[in-house]
Amino acid sequence: MKMSKDEVRDEGEKEGSSEKGYGLEGAAFGLADGIICFLGIIIGVAEATQDVRFVVISGIIGGIADALGNSIGFFISQSTERGVQIHETVEHGKKVRIHSRKEVWMSGFLSLGATFLALLLLMMPFAFLPLFSAIAFTFLIGNVTLFLLGRYVGHLSGESSIKTGLKFAALGTIGAIVSYGVGDALRHLSGVPDQVPLSLFQK
Questions:
Q1: In sequence order, what are the residues at sequence separation of 6 or more whose Cβ sits closer than 8 angstroms to the Cβ of residue 97?
Q2: Contact yes or no for 100/13 (Cβ under 8 A)
Q3: Which of 62, 64, 112, 118 has the fewest CB atoms within 10 Å, i.e. is most exposed?
Q4: How many C-beta atoms lie closer than 10 Å to residue 109's C-beta?
Q5: pLDDT digit of tens for each residue in the chain (203 aa)?
Q6: What ranges in 19-100 are assigned the alpha helix state H?
């Protein structure tokens, strides 16, 4: 007997509510995307401007934009996937797991929170350390976090946790190196003078 879309939605709500770990995908995405994105912004702007105030301003603005973009984008993506799952079940009789509304909303919120957490972790060194020390410390924090996240993802997927961790950290390193190079090139092209880089509180 063919189920209606309302019946399929209700079934999806029951299945989704019984699943543990819902929203993990959103949290992992927000954290990984946030760290890679913010490493690029922070290190690139720091090298380009040599001014911690611009780093903080750029980081906060970029962080808010990225967090909202991640959460809204992930919510739309999950909602679309839920619609496809319902359609496949109703129209083609395929038995697929359907995201519950709770999962969709929770994924969006966890993506938002994880992205803000990434911003907080990477911005802290600039409040207390001189610019170049803060860049190095931020790079270290970002890559250690990516490595640990990769290890966890590898453990869940049954893949080598070390290899997955190193792969995540390598992606963060590549993004940081490219952003540093772009920032350095822009600094020389725009004629930004070398200056004594201080921490935010020293300003």
A1: 12, 15, 85
A2: yes
A3: 64
A4: 16
A5: 444 444 444 454 444 544 445 567 778 888 888 899 889 999 899 888 888 888 889 988 988 998 898 888 878 877 787 777 776 766 666 666 666 777 778 888 888 888 899 999 898 888 888 888 888 999 999 999 999 988 988 887 788 889 999 999 999 999 889 988 888 888 888 776 665 455 555 55
A6: 24-49, 52-92
